[in-house]
Design goal:
Elements (H helix, E strand, L loop, with lengths): L5 H11 L8 H14 L4 H8 L3 H10 L1 H9 L1
Helix pairs in contact: 2-4
């Protein structure tokens, strides 16, 4: 099985985004973030790439919301 790099995943997002109904885009973006994380992509690498897309940024913030809350507690 070959692996796919994170840039390819986000290129895929850019290509399918116009085909996703507006009401579903955030949910699909959250799935993209989760898949990238579960594939072992570093959080910092995901963050760098999503900063170019408001929907992915929102999904990133939601997905890592617990991490931010833990950091604030320290």
């Amino acid at each position: 099985m070959s692996s796919i790099d994170i840039e390819t995943v986000f290129e895929l997002w850019e290509r399918i985004k116009p085909c996703i109904p507006a009401k579903d885009k955030l949910e699909v973006a959250e799935i993209f973030i989760k898949v990238a994380d579960e594939a072992g992509v570093l959080k910092e690498d995901i963050e760098d790439l999503v900063s170019q897309d408001k929907i992915l940024e929102e999904a990133f913030d939601r997905y890592y919301e617990d991490d931010y809350e833990e950091e604030e507690e320290w």
